[in-house]
Hints:
Elements: E1 2-9, E2 15-19, E3 26-29, H1 32-52, E4 64-67
Parallel strand pairs: 1-4
Antiparallel strand pairs: 1-2, 2-3
Amino acid sequence: MDYIIEVEQETDGRWIADIAQLPGVMAYGSTRDEAMAKAQALALRVEAEKLENGERPFFETSLSFKAA
């Protein structure tokens, strides 16, 4: 599955990264790269939980991230 990371800078200077395909997966960072890294880490945690709960077969799991 390819996840698209949408990143934008807030008016207060912080960066926010959001992965729309995974509701609730968004993260703030002081830099663009930090926000993206935090969002990717959170997405991996969500996918790991799905695997642990049998919601997604392991053999079909492939992840990649692209900046929007």
